[in-house]
Amino acid sequence: MERPAWAPHGIDLSVPSVSRMYDYYLGGSHNFEADRVAARKVLDAFPGLPKIVQANRAFMRRAVRHAISEGVTRFLDIGSGIPTFGNVHEVAREASPEARVVYVDNDPVAVAHSTAVVRDIEGVEIVAADFRDPAALLATEPVQHLLAPNRPVAVLLVALLHFMDDEDKPYERVAEFRDALPRGSMLVLSHASTDGGPATTEQGEEVSEVYRRGGSTFVMRSFEEIARFFEGYELVEPGLVALPDWRPEGPVDEEDPIVYSGFVGVGRTA
Question: CA 122 to CA 99: how far, in whole Å?
């Protein structure tokens, strides 16, 4: 297999990556054949996934603009993946020139490409770290700089937590970030679910199995299980809702119900 010039050395191109599969769903070009093969298998089980991914990104942009409107101009995007058009720093800095963003990912391809994209952009940095080790992530220099003025921070866990099984202790990890951040900080979260949408439990299990065979975890959680992540936060209106229903900026298109296969919310600490 020929290695593209932009691919970091030391990674196995034959092993699919969650962030590169996500890049494929978005129509990106920073993915390998192994990622595309695995992604197509997921699409066989869940054909509407690209629309869900697009709706997820649209929610993220609305949430970032909301945070800015509430005076939160610092963003910690964990599991940020590979930057595409309309990413956090573009939305945030368009809304406020003072906005600062730190992207975090544990995929070397995502980190390498993100570094190239943001290298010359003021107020934007990339960190190689893992959500499952909050202490190490929070101790990195860029994150320390983000936290130094003791100003509120919006933590983005967008389409991340469904890749964490219970053994990863995701609830405890979210709580660790909550407790480490200044008062008034925000949690921006989206999570896949078959509750309330057209997808069946069987479809969700099939998607989970495809990821498992590729060496990754994918967990569909219930509405109640997702709501638990917001313990210690006050949910902002309209609460925990389906992707298109969180503060839509125009009429909600209900023609394709597949975009209701998940829940999103924004919380803020008192």
Answer: 10
Res 7 pLDDT > 80: no
Q: Strands 262-268, 234-235: parallel, antiparallel or unpaired by DSSP?
A: antiparallel
Helix (H) or strand (E) holding 154: strand 154-158
Is residue 91 classed as helix, strand or coil in its secondary structure?
helix
Which candidate, 56, 55, 24, places its Cα nearest to that of 42?
Answer: 24
**What pairs with residue 127 in β-bridges?**
104
Between the alpha carbon of residue 191 and those of residues 98, 164, 199, the distances in Å are 29, 11, 14
Q: 21-34: per-residue pLDDT in tens?
A: 988 998 888 888 99
Return the minimum-mean-pLDDT range out of 54-63, 79-88, 151-160.
79-88
pTM: 0.91
Is residue 5 classed exposed, middle or buried when 0-12, 13-18 and 19+ CB atoms within 10 A define those classes?
exposed
Distance CA 103, CA 127 (A): 6
The predicted pLDDT at position 11 comes to: 74
Give the pLDDT score at 6: 64
Question: Rounded distance, CA 237 to CA 235, Å?
Answer: 6
| pLDDT 10s digits, 160-194 | 999 999 999 999 999 999 999 999 999 999 999 99
If we measure between CA atoms, which residue out of 129, 130, 72, 136 comes closest to residue 101? Answer: 72
Cα 187 to Cα 21, 158, 193, distances in angstroms: 25, 10, 19
Residues 61, 154 contacting (CB under 8 angstroms)? no
